[in-house]
Amino acid sequence: MQDRPHRSALYIPGSKDRALDKARGLPVDMILFDLEDAVTPDAKIAARDTLYAALAAGGYGPRLKIVRINALDTPWGVEDAAAVAAMACDGVLLPKVNGPGDVDALAGLVPDLPIWAMMETPQGVLNAAAIAAHPRIAGFVLGTNDLAKDMNSRGRTALMMSLQHCLLAAKAARIVALDGVYNAFKDDDGLRAECAEGRDMGFDGKTLIHPAQIAIANAEFGPSEDEIALARRQIAAFEAAEAEGQGVAVVDGKIVENLHIVTARATLAKAEAIAALESA
Questions:
Q1: What is the number of helices (H) and of strands (E) in the chain?
Q2: Residue 11's closest CA among 46, 40, 35?
Q3: Measured between alpha carbons, how far is 124 from 134 in angstroms, rounded to an integer?
Q4: Among residues 157, 168, 198, 193, which one has the least CA distance to residue 180?
Q5: In 3D, which of 168, 138, 135 has the Cα closest to residue 2?
Q6: In this structure, is the dihedral angle defined by the CA atoms of residues 116, 118, 122 and 123, taken in order, positive or negative?
Q7: Please, are residues 67 and 14 in contact by the beta-carbon 8 Å criterion?
């Protein structure tokens, strides 16, 4: 999973034919087809058939296709899971994951699909390491709105410990971690700032609620031209130093060691993966 871009992950209602069709042409890395919050209770059963038909028709290209089901303790969750198991998707996203037992329960219903966990409850955050270590888990999706509600907190600063705790667990398990949504979809400056913060923290990408947010997330979570150029200069300088029998190089007045080269090569690999995805 880590060898492909996850810069932008857009929620799309699984019940809306028009939205499902429009998503085929969006420059997003991932689509989170939603059977949960974006679908009203009276439309949840029909949404399964609508989404099944859309995915069967294809046309989503190389985008990662993940389906968010309803929680298994709701009237729809178990049947959602059975339906998703037969869909042409790349994984299933389980809401309200409190511990690895919740993952076990879903794993038996979708034996062939990677499982992603919505990290959106206090108990889930406290159990993040155990959830991330589950062999079926492919990634974390931070549900910051629900987490803020359960914590009765205001503002992103109040969630910072929870974000970092989940992020540490994801990195330790080498799985993908996606930052929560930014609700003010018309506030480009605010979105850009929150994406930059999430990227600096180490998140792999941002979950989005509107197509207008895609370009900013892609730009902020992808390497810039300056970062790519620096990575190339670091690699060239380090290789030249090694050829002379030295273990370090200097670039722009800063020491460059092997650990910096690991990061530089990862930057170039990510840039190449993004280019391949966008040209597909």
A1: 12, 10
A2: 35
A3: 13
A4: 198
A5: 138
A6: negative
A7: yes
13 in Cβ contact with 50 (< 8 Å): no
Q: Residue 200 and residue 266: Cα distance in Å, rounded?
A: 15
Tokens 């499902």 — which residue?
A: 20
Contact 174, 150 (CB under 8 A): no
Dihedral pair phi/psi, residue 8, rounded to 5°: -135, 130
4 Cβ neighbours under 8 A, 6+ residues apart: 29, 64, 273, 277
Give me 77's structure tokens: 């969750």
Q: CATH assignment of 8-221? A: 3.20.20.60
- Token pair, residue 188, equals 């480009």
Which residue, 114, 142, 115, 111, is CA-closest to 128?
142
pLDDT given for residue 195 in this prediction: 98
Contact 115, 107 (CB under 8 A): yes
DSSP symbol at 224: P
Per residue in 111-139, pLDDT (tens digit) is 999 999 999 999 999 999 999 999 999 99
Q: Is 239 exposed, middle or buried (0-12, 13-18, 19+ CB in 10 A)?
A: exposed
CA distance 122 to 67: 23
Distance of CA 226 to the CA centre of its chain: 24
3-class SS string, 93-115 = EECCCCCHHHHHHHHCCCCCCCE
**pTM to 2 decimal places:** 0.94
Nearby residues of 108 by Cβ (< 8 Å), 6 or more positions away: none
Phi, psi of 141 (to 5 degrees): -120, 120
44 Cβ contact partners less than 8 Å away, ≥ 6 residues apart: 15, 35, 70, 76, 80
pLDDT band at 2 (very low <50, low <70, confident <90, very high): low
Task: Render pLDDT for 67-105 as a digit per residue (tens, 0 to 9).
Answer: 999 999 999 999 999 999 999 999 999 999 999 999 999
